[in-house]
């Protein structure tokens, strides 16, 4: 199957139209159904894919690997010790070498400029598995999950709660604006998103019948929400900021009280994972010893509730990533 998106990179949702995003979500649902029926069309036979990881990941690495193999492609993992961005070789030179050997490149790391540099010089599709600015493959999985549970995306009331400046908040805001949602970021004022990106998202929202709210008022921000979404309070590389973030964000923990403020009983809870919801991790135990809290961004009660669809969401990473690779690379 040849898509209109063939040859395109997937760096962020700003580069894709609502129709193109819907095409990827619909294709994701199709390949998910195919896999459940035991159908493997192998549309990427004899393709080679480079998986560049400056940041570790469970879901992104596994999703790309399984999706590639399902479709007949060969994935090659290159960790932070295998690539030399800016040290022994520039991003541009790395891209030109890999583009001669691979049919597609995934990058997960820090600077968004790096994935842009790869896309600018590789000559093959480049996919953003996460940068400090955006995490678009995760948003596709989130939107597929919502569509599966609610049946639609248009006019969904979506509240992102927590660090409103991080890559998930940025990506979800742009995606929600494209899809015509009622989107809210609920965060302390010091963690509001960059004003320029909010302005851009509001302009996109106006074109698509969406709305964007940025507020520190929890009751206002989650009222009538169809979805409450949160993320870790401290990202990789920011571990020295735990104390500051906990003080700022503890009132914004997603718990039973917050869920009740929606006024609904069927509000979905989503999280891109990993989540600090209990004391079963070394980090969770360390935080408990230092600060006396048993959970951070979400309570265990909410995380393990029937409203929580985090496992569907995690699985959907694989299906949506498969769809992106097929749409941009399949012959």
Structure description:
With 331 residues, this protein is of the alpha/beta class. The chain is built from 13 helices and nine strands. The chain has helices at 18-36, 59-70, 91-101, 112-122, 136-150, 167-179, 195-208, 218-222, 242-249, 256-260, 282-291, 300-303, 310-329, and strands spanning 48-53, 74-78, 104-108, 126-130, 157-161, 182-186, 211-215, 227-230, 268-271. A five-stranded parallel β-sheet has the order 7-6-5-8-9. A four-stranded parallel β-sheet has the order 2-1-3-4, with helices on both faces. Helix 2 (59-70) crosses helix 13 (310-329) and helix 5 crosses helix 13 (310-329). The protein starts with 17 loop residues before the first helix and ends with a helix. The mean pLDDT is 96.
Structure in a nutshell:
The chain has 331 residues and is α/β, with parallel strands linked by helices. The chain has helices at 18-36, 59-70, 91-101, 112-122, 136-150, 167-179, 195-208, 218-222, 242-249, 256-260, 282-291, 300-303, 310-329; strands at 48-53, 74-78, 104-108, 126-130, 157-161, 182-186, 211-215, 227-230, 268-271.
Which structural class should the secondary elements be placed in? alpha/beta
**Could you name the ranges where pLDDT drops below 50 across 5 or more consecutive residues?**
none
Largest beta-sheet characterization: 5 strands, parallel
Biggest sheet: strand arrangement: 7-6-5-8-9
Q: What string, H for helix and E for strand, traces the elements in order?
A: HEHEHEHEHEHEHEHEHHEHHH
Mean pLDDT: 96
How many extended strands? 9
């Amino acid at each position: 199957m040849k898509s209109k998106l063939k040859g395109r990179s997937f760096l962020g949702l700003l580069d894709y139209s609502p129709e193109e995003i819907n095409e990827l979500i619909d294709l994701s649902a199709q390949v998910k159904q195919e896999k459940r029926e035991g159908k493997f069309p192998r549309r990427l036979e004899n393709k080679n894919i480079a998986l560049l990881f400056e940041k570790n990941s469970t879901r992104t690495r596994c999703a790309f690997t399984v999706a590639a193999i399902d479709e007949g492609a060969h994935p090659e993992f290159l960790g932070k010790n295998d690539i030399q961005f800016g040290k022994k070789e520039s991003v541009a030179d790395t891209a030109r070498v890999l583009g001669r050997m691979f049919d597609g490149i995934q990058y997960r790391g820090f600077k968004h400029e790096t994935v842009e540099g790869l896309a600018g010089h590789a000559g093959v599709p480049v996919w953003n598995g996460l940068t400090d600015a955006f995490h678009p493959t995760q948003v596709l999985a989130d939107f597929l999950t919502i569509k599966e549970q609610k049946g639609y995306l248009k006019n969904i009331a979506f509240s992102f709660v927590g660090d409103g400046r991080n890559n998930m908040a940025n990506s979800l805001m742009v995606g929600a604006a494209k899809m015509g949602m009622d989107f809210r970021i609920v965060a302390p004022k010091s963690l509001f998103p960059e004003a320029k990106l909010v302005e851009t998202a509001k302009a996109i929202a106006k074109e698509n019948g969406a709305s964007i709210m940025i507020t520190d008022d929890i009751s206002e921000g989650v009222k009538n929400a169809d979805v409450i979404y949160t993320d870790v309070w401290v990202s990789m590389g920011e571990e020295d900021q735990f104390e500051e973030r906990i003080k700022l964000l503890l009132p914004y923990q997603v718990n039973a009280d917050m869920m009740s403020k929606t006024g609904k009983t069927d509000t979905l809870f989503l999280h891109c994972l990993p989540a600090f919801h209990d004391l079963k991790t070394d980090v969770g135990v360390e935080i408990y010893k230092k600060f006396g809290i048993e959970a951070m961004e979400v309570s265990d009660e909410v995380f393990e509730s029937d409203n929580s669809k985090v496992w569907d969401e995690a699985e959907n990473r694989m299906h949506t990533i498969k769809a992106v690779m097929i749409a941009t690379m399949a012959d």
